[in-house]
Amino acid sequence: MFVPTNLVFGRGTLNSLHEQAMPGKKALIIISNGKSTRANGYLARTEEQLRMAGIASAVFAGVEPNPTVGNVVAGARAARDNACDFIVALGGGSVMDCSKAIAVMATNDGELWDYIFVGSGKGKPIANAPLPIIAITTTAGTGSEIDNAGVITKLDTNEKAFIAATSLYPKTAIVDPELMATVPAKFTAYQGFDALFHSVEGYIAKGANAMSDMYALTAIENIAKYLPTAVKDGGDLEAREHVALGNTLSGVVMDLVTITSEHAMEHALSAYQPSLPHGAGLIMISKAYYEFFVEKHACDKRFVRMAQAMGMPSATKPQDFISALVALQEACGVADLKMSDYGIVPAEFEKFMRNSREVMGVLYSSDPAEMSDADIVAVYAKSYK
Asked: What is the pTM of this model?
C-alpha cells in the first residue's frame, strides 16, 4: 500500500493551508473555466493562505468539465511563463485531473499522449519529475485528491484516457466539506455516485483484497447513508462531511485495486458527448451493468454485503444490491436520467463498445465475470431512455 499524500480532512481545513509544507516558492493555482471558485471566495481565500505562507502565485482558469489536451497545453504554458515550481489544484475532479497532466507537461518535452499508456498513447516514461501538487477539492466525486491518475480527453480521436505515475500523488490534499456546500443538488448527486461506484467496482473487482474491502465498504456505507441528505440540503455540513469521507476513501480504493469496466463504458459515452457529466453517465448504465454480474452470479456474497452496507441489513440475495442502488438513485432524484437528452442514439452503441475496449480495455480485466462485445452493447441498450 503506497498512498503518500498528506491528507488534511474536515470542516474549515482550508484555513490551515498556510501551515502545511510547501513544495516550492511560487504556485500556479489551477481552477475551472467557470465562475464558482471566484464567486464563492475560494480562490481569494487560497491566495491569502499562500501569501500567509510566503508563497507567490499566478492563476490559470482554463479547465473544462471534461478536461482536454488543449487545456493541458495551455496550463503547462502558464506554469512555465509564470516560472511556477508547484501547482495548487483548486476545484473538482476535472481540475485535479487536469493539474496532474499539466504537472507532467510543464517539465517534459513532446505531447501529453507520449506519456499515456492506453489507447493510442506511446507509453513513454516520464523523464523529468512533474511539478509537485497540492490538491484542494471543492467536490466529492473523483477521489483525485488522494490518487496518482488523471483523466484527459483527446478530442481528435475521441479518447478519454488516463495519465498515471507515482510522482503524481498530490503532496498535500485539503478536503474541506465547507467548500462543497455550494455544489448544486444534481451535481452533488452525480459526483456522489461517481465516488460510490469507485468503491462498488473496487469491491467486486478481481483484485479486491482485505485492505481495499475495508475502505470500500466504509465508503459505500457513508455515501449511501448521507448522499440523499446532501442532495436535498447542500448546507448540511454533517452530510457533506460524510460524503466527502466516502469520496476520499474511494480514492484510496483506486490506489489499492484496479476498478472495473463500468468506468470504461462511461468514458466512451462522455468522450463522444463532452456535455455528459461523468457521474450522470455512470448512473445511466449502472442498473443494467450490475444486473449483468448479478445474473452471472459472479460474486453473490459481495453483492449481498454491499446491499447491507447501503442500508438493507436483512439483505440475503444479490438482487438486493440492485434494489438498494435503485432506491438510492430515486432518493437522490437521478433515477430517470436519459441518454437521449445528451444526443446519444442506439446506433452508436457498437462504437462506444469499441472505444471502451480500445482506450480503457485494461479495466475489463478486473471484471468478476467476462463481458463479451455483445454483452457490453446489451448493457448500453438496456440502459437507453
From this structure: 0.97
